[in-house]
UniProtKB/TrEMBL annotation:
Nucleotide-binding listed as a keyword: no
One GO biological process term: DNA-templated transcription
Protein name as annotated: RNA polymerase I associated factor, A49-like
Database matches in InterPro entries: RNA_pol-assoc_fac_A49-like (IPR009668)
Organism: Carpediemonas membranifera
Keyword Ribonucleoprotein recorded: no
Lineage: Eukaryota, Metamonada, Carpediemonas-like organisms, Carpediemonas
First and last residue of the signal peptide: none
GO CC, one annotated term: DNA-directed RNA polymerase complex
Main location: nucleus
Pfam families per record: RNA_pol_I_A49 (PF06870)
Family: Belongs to the eukaryotic RPA49/POLR1E RNA polymerase subunit family.
Compartments, as annotated in UniProt: Nucleus, Nucleolus
GO MF terms, alphabetically ordered: DNA binding
Amino acid sequence: MTKAKLHVAGGNSDSAPFVFSFPQGAPPATTLNTKSESRIGLTVFKNQQKKEFLLLGNVEEQSYISDKTTGPGMKYLVGIRKKGSKEMTLCPAHQLYSLVPYRKDATQSENDSAAASISQQRIGLAETFGSRKRQTSLQRAISNRQSANNLDTATSAAMEQQVLKAADGVDLAADVSRSTLIPPHDKTATKPEDAYPLSGVLPEEHYEEFQGEVLAEVARNPSSSEETWPSFVQARFGELASITSDAMVAKQGALLLMYTTYIRLACMGSRDLNDQEKLDASLGVCPMKVWEWVKEGELVTSRGRKTKISDSQKKGLRLRAVIVALHAAQFDIEDASRIAEDLKLPLKDVVEMARQLGCTASSASGAGKRKSTSATPVAGSIRLDKLPLVFPEKRKRART
C-alpha cells in the first residue's frame, strides 16, 4: 500500500475550494459528465462581514441553493494528489455546503421543509435503530446546530435580502441556466477553432457517418435532391462543389449536415419528435450514431420511447447551430440573415445570440458580400475575431 506524505497548504478564503453534498441525491451521472456541456453552474454571493457564501445553481430544470450543514468549529481540508505521486497536499476548504432543491415560486417555509425532510429521516432512523453512543452524538450535533442557527439567523436573512436586492428582479436560476447553454468553449484560447472546439458540437469520429461526399454531389446538381435545404446550406453549395480534397469534402459536408440537424431540431416540438414519420422526414440527414450522440449529450431529453425538447434545449440547439455555421464559414459569416431565416427568428435575435457567444455581430444591411438568391436581401455579419472570449453581462430588467 502506497503511503503519501501530507502537506497542508496555506491560503486565504478567496482561493479556498468549496465542498458540496447532495442530501437528497445527486443529479444523474450523465449530467455531471465532464464531456457534456450540461454541468452545474453556480452563482456565488459573498457576505464580506461574516465571509459566508450563498450559492445558487441550476441543473437542467432543477435549481439548487446552498444550505450550511456544519456547526461552529468544524474545519474541512481537501486532499489533492497527482497520479503516481507519493505526496498529497491538503488545502483548507470552506465549510461543507449542501445543495438542496430550490423553487423560486415556492415560499420560504416550503423550501425549508423540503431541505429539512432528509435530515428528519436520518434523525428518525438514528433514534429508532441507533446505538446509545450514536443517539448521544446526534443530540449533541442537533444542539450545536440549533445554537449556531440562532446566532446566524439574522445575519443570513439580511444577506439573502441583499442578494435579492442586488439582483434587482433578475431570475438568478435562469441566469445560471443561460450560462450552461453556451456550447463547450475555452475562454483562454487565442484561436477561434480553439475557443469553440469542433468536438463540442460535432465529434470527429462522426464525420464519415454524415457522408459529406453525397452532399457534394447534391451541391453539383441541386435539382436532383428531394430535400429542402436550409438557406445557409444552399448558399454554400457552390463552395462545396468546388472542393477537390476528399478530407475537406467530408469535413465541410459534415458541418453543413450537422447545421441542418441542429436547425431542424430547434424548430421541432416534443410531439414531432415522437412522430416517427415526421422525425424521419426531418432528420433523414442525421445518421443514427449522431442522433444517439445528441440524446446522450442531453440536447434533447430521451426517456425510454419518449423524447422531449424544452425551450431551454431549443435555445442551446440554436447556439450550436451558430457555432457550426461559424466553423463552416471560417468564423466570418457575412449572411447572418440566412441563419435567421432558417431558425424562423428575427435577425436581431440571431445577432444577440452571437453576441452572447462572445462574437462581434451586426444586423446592418449589406454587411455581407454574398449575393442573395431569394427575395430576402442578405444582411448581417457574425465574426469570432475578439479573443480570448469575453461574454457580455446579462442586462437587468427594468423596474416596473
